[in-house]
Amino acid sequence: MTEIPLTGGNVSAGVVRVGDTVRRPAGPWTPSVHALLGHLHSVGFPGAPRPLGLDERGREVLEFIDGDVPWPGRVDLLLPDAAVVAVGELVRDFHDAVAGFVPPADAAWQVLMPADGAEIVAHHDLAPWNLVAGRGRWAFIDWDTAAPGTRLWDLAYAANGFALLPEGAGVAEAARRMRLMADAYDLTEAQRHELVDLLGPRARAMHDFLGAQSAAGTEPWRKLWDTGHGTHWRRRADHLDRHRDAWLRALLG
Ligand SMILES: Nc1ncnc2c1ncn2[C@@H]1O[C@H](COP(=O)(O)OP(=O)(O)OP(=O)(O)O)[C@@H](O)[C@H]1O
Ligand SMILES: [Mg+2]
Q1: Which of 142, 219, 221, 223 to mutate to test the pocket of ligand 1 (most atoms within 8 A of CB)?
Q2: Of 85, 91, 163, 203, which is least packed with CB atoms within 10 Å of its CB?
Q3: Do 58 and 82 reside in the same domain of the chain?
Q4: Where's the Aminoglycoside phosphotransferase domain (predicted)?
Q5: Which domain holds residue 34?
Q6: Are the beta carbons of 94 and 123 closer than 8 angstroms?
Q7: What's the sign of the alpha-carbon dihedral 39, 44, 45, 51?
């Protein structure tokens, strides 16, 4: 069958579509990731692709989800209030669905950076480049770096990616969108405080990770660092820290 290259990712070369499936390079973490995706499917969570095993070339096979990936070409899809609400609900539904997941005894995750805990298996890259906005169904893709983490570690990262839109939006608008997301996730008051405390540190963890990997010469991170991704995350972290009071007011007001 014809293989259609899928572009858009920074990390995995060789992602292709074959019929109704996607083929991606597998890694030592793939069996654990497929156990996770199988669990999500079995409990009826529709926001992730179904895992379909390995193909004859050893690549992972996943359900192809038809739709648009918002980043970078269709960010407009994320601008309506209903979109940021849908993302907040989707992250909540994922976290509730994953709560009952028991990883295989020999689970091997790809852990890029330490999280702030391990209450769930988190996605770690819930961002506009890893969302497929499909007709009737939105789903997160790119589960390669799923690993132990916390709900708020995932949500702080998602808030950074989905609430701070459009690029260059003012603090008031970003704070308003963050409130929509927090309400959609149904955060408690205590969690709202915790989330605000994590926003800057979560972004800074990205900067520090890319910096360390770049210094060690590890690809693809070195290339990302060289093309300004480190600077981007540092600026984001500073911005999130600087406006801490605005986020807190919006979330608690
Ligand atoms: N299950 C899927 N259904 C539909 N499209 C998909 C699916 N998986 C991947 N794609 C498409 O392939 C592109 C790259 O996939 P993916 O995000 O998995 O790669 P990556 O290089 O690991 O990404 P990243 O840079 O975010 O780490 C996506 O932008 C999307 O267009
Ligand atoms: Mg991706």
Answers
A1: 142
A2: 85
A3: no
A4: 106-167
A5: 4-63
A6: yes
A7: positive
Question: Does 117 lie in the same domain as 203?
Answer: yes
Question: Tens digits of per-residue pLDDT, 183-232?
Answer: 999 999 999 999 999 999 999 999 999 999 999 999 999 999 999 999 99
Query: CATH no. for residue 229?
Result: 3.90.1200
> Please, how many CA atoms are within 13 Å of residue 82, restricted to the half-sphere of its CB?
3
> pLDDT per residue over 30-76, tens digit each?
999 999 999 999 999 999 999 999 999 999 999 999 999 999 999 99
Dmax over CA atoms of the chain, in Å, equals 55
User: Number of folded domains in the chain?
Assistant: 2
The helix or strand, by DSSP H or E, that contains position 54, with its residue range, turns out to be strand 51-54
Considering the domain architecture, whether residues 58 and 73 belong to the same structural domain is answered as no
Amino acid at the residue 129: W
